[in-house]
Amino acid sequence: MQADDLCLRVSSDPRLLAVIRGVIQVWLEVCGLLEDRRHEVVLAIDEACSNAMRHAYKGRTDEPVDLVLSASEEWVEITVSDQGTPCPRECSEYRPLVAPAPDEVVPGGLGVRLIHEVFDEVRFCPGTRSGNCVTMRLRRTAKNEVDSED
Amino acid sequence: MKIETTVTADETIIAVEGDIDLYSSPELRTAVLKAVPRATTGVGVHLGGVTYMDSSGVATLVEGLRSAKENGKTFSLVAPSTSVMKVLELARLDSIFEVRSG
User: pTM of this prediction?
Assistant: First the structure.
């Protein structure tokens, strides 16, 4: 385990999303990420956990959602995994966010797009036996860091 | 999250406080979809006290907007907090809503 690493296992109860957000918020602060970036990263991780609860576990609240957070000099990396129903591949594919025409706006399908928007690298992979796993990486550039000279 | 609905002669105001996420957004969805068809002219969702909003909150607002259009009502966001605006901007959906300061 590295100095900044954090592992978290929470049950798939949406009430716990607020707890997850709080923990990640503080962890990102410890890592030295700028406040603006922290909000976006917290949002994207929240979306990944919400997807596990809603789609992989279909609303069951007593299943495990695992988060592994690690920071190196170059990257901040977060993996969210579940042991639920694997989501169809097309659900995790990158689709760019564009401003839709007012009549074409549809609710839903936004979570994965936000994850792609926030992170520099996103990799969806199947879990060990069943389930889903997403690894999200943010490059530690000067614009993201509190101690930036720029 | 706390929701308070106030019906006035011309507009129904739904004031929301706290976090809107997967856990709380169904309650907001119910309040919005109930208020829209009953409103005299339309609905204003006051988001000044919202500390956090995720994509389920965005989807709820999009549903409200669509329902308002179907019912011939107005639908606007009132005094959205910074974190609400950030999510809408990130989702490129900030321009589809009528936003007013108060």
Answer: 0.93
